[in-house]
């Protein structure tokens, strides 16, 4: 009985707050002459803070047309903006900047949803050793990371040198499918110097680029390394979970002036790999069995950073200046 009463009170409180909120929005609109979308666009600067408020406003609207506007096809965004302006009785000639701002927000919102679908498709596609494109990417990974050490055979213990578990890497991609390979190749190809340094440090952490004094201070003589490729696939899983949970919205809405793309996701992976490497060294685990503990701690740190609406994980991949004018 007590459980029923508690649920009843919670339901009543929910509807009371919902009605109160709608009444408050009505009063504010009458006082300001602006709808909630206008107030958000005019009073919140471009980026995650604005886009996330617009997204919440549209999803929480009592109008089905507004609720579904966050799920439209990218080609239908312009018409959707016209529909929103018409529904809200906003004159686009008097408020031209509003349409531009709403379009930028919708491009990010719809783009994020499409990015999840694209990433999920790659994650679900298994590595196929009979597929020439898959094999070509795998060999490219080796060439980028070990340019001075030719691979003697496709099936070889040499793969362990870049952190795979056995003599055929295809078995290690099962968890993340092609997504893990795509990310590793992107890191090795576009951030080659850092990728090679991280690989070297993972094999010989004692000789990381920290100064000798820092190594002695931190007592890293027995520092534990890790398997580069396996950790890369694991960090791909971490990035994937951040994306699907919506946590990466803060980052992507701050760096992508329009729709976030797979390249943005891969750049974020590069950042996470580099940051995890430094975090691993700082944590100085006793052995590789502590990997899950260190990973979870790192994941929580990234999540906390992403709670800041101003956060951009990798500012050197920041959006173009066009974002400022939206």
Automatic annotation (TrEMBL):
<dbReference type="Pfam" id="PF04727">
    <property type="entry name" value="ELMO_CED12"/>
</dbReference>
<dbReference type="InterPro" id="IPR006816">
    <property type="entry name" value="ELMO_dom"/>
</dbReference>
<dbReference type="GO" id="GO:0005096">
    <property type="term" value="F:GTPase activator activity"/>
</dbReference>
<dbReference type="InterPro" id="IPR050868">
    <property type="entry name" value="ELMO_domain-containing"/>
</dbReference>
<feature type="domain" description="ELMO">
    <location>
        <begin position="133"/>
        <end position="306"/>
    </location>
</feature>
<protein>
    <submittedName>
        <fullName>ELMO domain-containing protein 1 isoform X1</fullName>
    </submittedName>
</protein>
